[in-house]
Every structure is written in structure tokens, then in C-alpha cells.
Amino acid sequence: MPSSVMPTSSRNSAPQRPAAVSAVGLRKSYGDKTVLDGIDLRIPAGSVFALLGPNGAGKTTAVKILSTLISADGGQAQVAGHDLAADPQAVRAAIGVTGQFSAVDGLITGEENMLLMADLHHLSRAEGRQATTELLERFDLTEAAKKPASTYSGGMKRRLDIAMTLVGNPRIIFLDEPTTGLDPRSRHNMWQIIRELVTDGVTVFLTTQYLDEADELADRIAVLNNGKIAAEGTADELKRLVPGGHVRLRFTDPAAYRSATHALDETTRDDESLTLQIPSNGSQRDLRTILDRLDTAGIEADELTVHTPDLDDVFFALTGSTTLPTQQPTQQPNQPKETVR
Predict the structure, then answer these.
(1) Could you give the C-alpha distances from 30 to 21, 39, 71, 77, 331, in angstroms and in order?
(2) Number of C-alpha atoms within 13 angstroms, CB side, residue 111?
(3) What does the pLDDT look like over 93-132, one tens digit per residue?
């Protein structure tokens, strides 16, 4: 597989939204170790963008640069229309950042954490209290508002962390591994919060170790490996980069099965179960070609199943890693997704 693949099949089908974040040739090194080696990014406003990669790939470094926490060694970037190097203060005013480790102060209450953030954003007392009340309610923290944050569960602390990030009403939010360590219910609650943010027009830059999380949330995904973007596209575009996809046809009529073997090309036969397997990238065009050939020959399959590679397969193929990022306990690695029609 090429070291850099940029799917473009669907990009020209609709006008591009303005970029909330863009970067060209972004570079960063620590000593003789190159962490980012000239990466390019374009993240449309009002979307979720997920950055995947092995541990140590540079995901957090990219977030720190784009959120003005550290400076790049080279390249250019704009965030919310502001040049990162020329006007970092304007960038900070437009963004919110939730890092890997919670910024919640456990010695004070949830409400006090929120009011502290309001003070840092120079809101008036009335504005601060209004924002605090609204956000605590939105994140289902009203009942716990006057309790010390140290008594909160992991999911509650993460919700409070994001609520604090929203005090300044940012239009772009960087979430660096926001659900790591959360139980499945808390993770799904966090996913719903992210979806609601995007519905409100917020742009979310997400780094995650959970491949299912990127698949579930992200409009576009980039895979970072060895300091470079190995591939970027929608989840479906990335899955089509990996070989192994196929369409499986099952028949109950032996005559229809035999006819289908002649009507279709490159089939793998299983005469005992009367099934055929046809290589496919899972695209609508591929599926339509198969169905058109069956229709022309007057053949009807009893069952059609589309097997597509998943993001696990993409991760292995693009990074050469022998281990996946963190998996959910209920998820089996390398299990292809299937759609029965």
C-alpha cells in the first residue's frame, strides 16, 4: 500500500465548507526525533475530524500546536481564520481544549470550577452564573453542582471538563482522547454530547485510541504514522483502501447457483453451501454491477451479504503496527462488518 493515500472520490460532489482548521507542511521535532514531518490538514467548519495513530505518533503534539500550547518548527496553520503564528491570541479566543488529563480541580465543587473558568474568560458575574447554570444543566450535573469534584465519577469529571471548555463559547474544540478510561455507558454519553456540539455548529478536532469511536463520530479521519498523514478520508473511503472486501451470495436453488457462477466473474465457489464470493470494494457501483448481471441473467439470490474491512484493518495496513489502539471489551478485533440485504 502506498505510504500516502488521499481518497478523493466524494470530495467534488458538493461545495466545500469553509475550513475551521487548516495546516500546510506542519513540522515539529524534539532533538533528533521528528514527530510531525510536514503534515497537511483541512477541517471543514461544523464537522468532526478524528486523528488516529499509534501511541507516540504525534497526535497530542498536533493538538498542542494547533491550540497554541507549543510552537511548530515549520509550516503554516490557520485556526478560525487566524494565523497561528501571527495572531495566537485570536486563536485562543476562538477555541476550547480538553486534554488527555482532566483540568477539573477536585478540591472545589463543580459549580466553583465553572465559575473559575468564567472568571478566566472575563465574563461578568451575571454572565458567569448564567453560563454555569446552563452548562451544568446541559451536562446533567445540576444535582452534583455543589459537591466537591473529587467525589465525581470518571464520566462526570469528563462531562464537567467539557462543560468548562464551553464556558467561553468556542466554535472549535480540541478533544484529546476524551473517553479514554471511561466505561461504555459514559463513552456513549460523551458521544452524544459531541454530536450535539456539532449540531450547534461547533467544529470538533478529536484524537482517540478507540477505532470504533472515530468510525461512529468522525466526518473525516486521518491516520498519522511516522510523522506523516498516511491516509485521510471518510471512514468508508479508508475502508475501501484495504483489500479483502467481498460480496457473498447464497442460493437455495442449485440451478440458480450454477447460472450465477457463469454470469459473474472472479467468483469463489462453495458448492456444498451454494454460496459465491465476489471481490468488491463495497462501493455502490460494485454492488450495482453484480445485481445488474444477475438481473440480466434472470437470477435471484436468496441472500446477499456485503463484507467490508473495518478501521482495525485500515490501522494495521497503514501503520504496520502489530497492536491496535485500545479496544472495547465487547469488540472483537479483525471482525469484518457485514450488511445483509
Answers:
(1) 24, 16, 12, 20, 36
(2) 11
(3) 999 998 877 789 999 999 999 999 999 999 999 999 999 9
